[in-house]
Design brief:
This protein has 15 helices and 17 strands. The chain has helices at residues 54-66, 161-178, 218-237, 283-292, 297-306, 311-319, 321-332, 339-353, 365-376, 382-395, 399-406, 414-427, 429-436, 443-454, 460-470, and strands at residues 4-15, 70-71, 74-75, 78-81, 91-94, 101-102, 105-106, 109-118, 122-126, 137-141, 148-154, 190-200, 210-215, 245-250, 255-261, 271-272, 279-280. The strands form four sheets. Strands 1, 2, 6, 7, 8, 11, 12, 13, 14 and 15 form a ten-stranded mixed β-sheet that branches. The chain is elongated.
């Protein structure tokens, strides 16, 4: 059988960071008491008339510009008709054949469209602790209903689960930089559906696709897509057909469950929303959106590469917006450390903070820049610098003062280090003999001894050179 190639497209639903809902004046919010953020419009009561949220349209234009999309001069809202308990109106107000944005690209992934719509309510499935009249029940919280959504639909440009998860991280950082959403996956403000099919490698034809719904973490997205690729591969290898359907991935068990047959666009009986006028995009609206655009992650990555920062460091600092902003502030402090050295120390700090915003830590950008400069100038060794950073993370303060308080200034020069190296060799005669014989593998024992005696204040390269000199190895 020919090798199979996955073909993956994503549909990303982004809750927009507006003060009010998409078509009414109810406030948006997370964690409020159930059914307290509602009105006749978002509850779909007869006679209630929607009004489009201008700020949501502004955010949609910003997203389109960031993705390089073609912005429609005239955009139309439609009714997408389907029945589900979380949809009070019996239809969703969305966009069909005249979306706000078409085309575009982010990284290696092409964009099909970006359109605006309102979110559904939230279904809470109660277990035994939520029984109503003695029976298990599902209850509806309409607070979320009507929240503005931007749906970003990609072309089927992705070829693996890992690539999909990595690209989603770039998209989330881009949206966060734009300020259009908090993109908090745990709270549901960024949700992802994946359309997955398999085809013979090298073929241009698409196989039958299935859809994984509402995955809300990068890890679950990657696991879910891998599980569906494996399931479809098994069916094809067994000579069975893949059915077009919508699936749910359970991250606890790793299992896939069929929800329903996959709908086609005509199943929703789209027609123009009669209560909303078409959205006409003016030059003033475009200019406002353009002026609001910040430096985007891929632009930052390009700038950092131009500063001589390595590709790996540039991606870390660009795809993690808060870390990149901290680096920029540290670089602006102009303490004298080269950009790559400062990038390395920013990564050291980020690693200690376990995903937290470095800007919210006790370490100031100026302090990190000063520490990086001290290490570059040889005033402090790398090892001692890490000790200083540990204290800055715990207590904050000035790195120079920490060095003085902890007596961490670098020990250097033959006068100071040669006696310590000789003592280390005398304490480890078997290692010294191996080194004399040309076996340099155990030199770490001597270097480690010197580092222990100097509390990490000696430079490893200088210690190695002194060892060779003491043993007459040239």
């Amino acid at each position: 059988m020919a090798e199979l190639e996955p073909v993956i497209g994503l549909e990303i639903h982004v809750q927009l960071r507006t003060q009010t809902k998409m078509f009414c004046g109810c406030p948006t919010g997370f964690g409020e008491p159930p059914n307290t953020l509602t009105c006749p419009v978002c509850l779909g009561l007869p006679g209630a008339l929607p009004v489009a949220n201008a700020e949501a349209i502004h955010y949609g234009l910003m997203i389109g510009m960031a993705l390089g999309s073609e912005l429609a001069p005239r955009s139309v809202f439609h009714r997408k008709n389907y029945f589900y308990p979380d949809l009070a109106k019996g239809y969703q107000i969305s966009q069909y054949d005249q979306p706000l944005c078409r085309g575009g690209q982010l990284g290696e992934v092409e964009i099909h469209r970006v359109h605006l719509e309102d979110d559904a309510a939230k279904l809470n499935h109660a277990g035994s602790s939520g029984r109503i009249h003695g029976a298990d029940a599902s209850v509806v919280d309409f607070n979320r209903g009507g929240t503005p959504l931007a749906e970003i639909v990609t072309e089927p440009s992705l070829r693996s689960a890992r690539q999909a998860a990595e690209w989603l991280r770039l998209l989330r950082t881009t949206l966060r930089q734009l300020g259009v959403s908090d993109v908090n996956m745990e709270e549901g403000s960024l949700r992802c559906d994946a359309n997955i099919s398999l085809r013979p490698a090298g073929s241009d034809e698409l196989g039958t696709k299935t859809e994984l719904k509402n995955m809300n973490s990068f890890r679950f997205i990657e696991r879910g897509i891998d599980a569906e690729i494996a399931r479809q591969s098994g069916l094809i290898e067994a000579g069975e057909a893949v059915a077009q359907e919508t699936l749910h991935f359970d991250p606890r068990s790793g299992s896939l469950t069929s929800l329903r047959s996959k709908e086609e666009a005509h199943d929703y009986r789209y027609f123009p929303e009669p209560d909303l006028a078409p959205v006409v995009i003016t030059n003033a609206m475009l200019e406002r959106a353009r002026q609001a655009l910040p430096e985007l992650p891929l632009e930052r990555e390009e700038r950092l590469l131009g500063l001589g920062v390595s590709a790996e460091s540039a991606r870390l600092l660009s795809w993690h917006g808060e870390t990149g902003a901290f680096f920029d502030e540290a670089l602006a402090a102009d303490a004298g450390a080269p950009p790559q050295a400062l990038a390395n120390w920013t990564a050291e700090l980020a690693g200690r903070l376990d995903g937290e915003d470095p800007g919210a830590s006790k370490v100031t950008p100026a302090a990190l820049a000063s520490l990086a400069a001290m290490v570059e100038e040889g005033k402090v060794t790398q090892g001692a610098g890490r000790q200083v950073l540990d204290r800055l993370v715990a207590e904050g303060g000035d790195p120079a003062q920490v060095v003085a308080d902890e007596d961490l200034e670098a020990v250097g020069g033959a006068d100071e280090l040669a006696p310590i190296v000789r003592a280390a060799l005398e304490a480890n005669p078997d290692v010294a003999e191996k080194l004399k014989g040309g076996d340099m593998k155990p030199i770490g024992v001597i270097v480690g001894h010197v580092m222990k005696e100097t509390r990490g204040r000696a430079d490893g390269g200088e210690v190695t050179a002194l060892v060779r000199s003491e043993l007459g190895l040239g």
